[in-house]
């Protein structure tokens, strides 16, 4: 499953890359949007799901470099933080 912060935006680039160079997208049409996941876990408002606000709430320093690897690492850290909050709630 593809997980990303604003996954509808990222998915189109990832899917295009895989189709061009692999001939298929191993993720298919499965994706989890971190903004929506955060919203569901915390009950925040949609306006409160900006990357800066969410990262700050978890004590993460995320600088969007638009480097694919940097962004992926930052989004993975954010996913782990939201998932940990969900697990802590039981």
What does this entry look like structurally?
The chain has one domain (2-89). The radius of gyration is 14 Å and the shape is globular. The protein has helices spanning 7-21, 34-42, 51-57, 68-89; strands at 2-4, 31-33. It is mainly α.
The number of domains: 1
Fraction of residues in β-strands: 5-15%
Low-pLDDT runs of 5+ residues are none
Strand order of the largest sheet: 1-2
Please tally the β strands and state the result.
2
Round the mean pLDDT to the nearest integer and report it. Answer: 92
Major sheet attributes? 2 strands, parallel
Specify Rg, calculated over alpha carbons: 14 Å
Structural class: mainly alpha
Count of helical segments? 4
- The coarse overall form would be globular
The run of helices and strands is EHEHHH
Helix content: 55-70%
User: Ends: how far apart?
Assistant: 23 Å
Describe the structure using short key phrases.
90 residues; 4 helices; single chain; mainly alpha
Briefly say what this structure is.
With 90 residues, this protein is mostly helical. 59% of the residues lie in helices and 7% in strands.
What layout of secondary structure does this protein have?
Blueprint: E1 2-4, H1 7-21, E2 31-33, H2 34-42, H3 51-57, H4 68-89
Parallel strand pairs: 1-2
Helix pairs in contact: 2-4
């Amino acid at each position: 499953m593809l997980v990303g912060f604003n996954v509808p935006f990222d998915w189109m680039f990832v899917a295009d890359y895989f189709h061009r160079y692999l001939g298929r997208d191993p993720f298919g049409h499965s994706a989890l949007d971190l903004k929506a996941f955060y919203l569901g876990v915390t009950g925040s408002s949609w306006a409160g799901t900006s990357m800066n606000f969410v990262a700050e709430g978890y004590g993460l320093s995320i600088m969007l470099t638009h480097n694919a690897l940097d962004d992926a690492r930052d989004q993975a850290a954010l996913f782990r933080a939201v998932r940990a909050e969900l697990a802590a709630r039981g």
